[in-house]
Write a structure and sequence with these properties.
The chain is mainly alpha-helical. 55% of the residues lie in helices and 0% in strands.
Amino acid sequence: MNDDEILEIIRRESHIRPPREVAGLLEGLAAGGLTQSSLVSYFTRAFPAMPLGVVLNASGWRRVSRGGRSDDDFDALLQPWFPRVHGM
């Protein structure tokens, strides 16, 4: 699967899933899995209106770093730039 296909899936799924679930899709889609760098790379390209600083802050998510950002914090930080609000 190439990057354009991955980006399309991420964009499409962002209409029906919260950020943590969309990020979780990268685990199986991106060649290197879900890492800080893959999160930043794919999210900045999939959601160009999302400020880089927000994505970098979100990369402190405990699932991809030693940072302490919880799943709920991750979702709350990124949700405003997702196409739809997922019950938040």
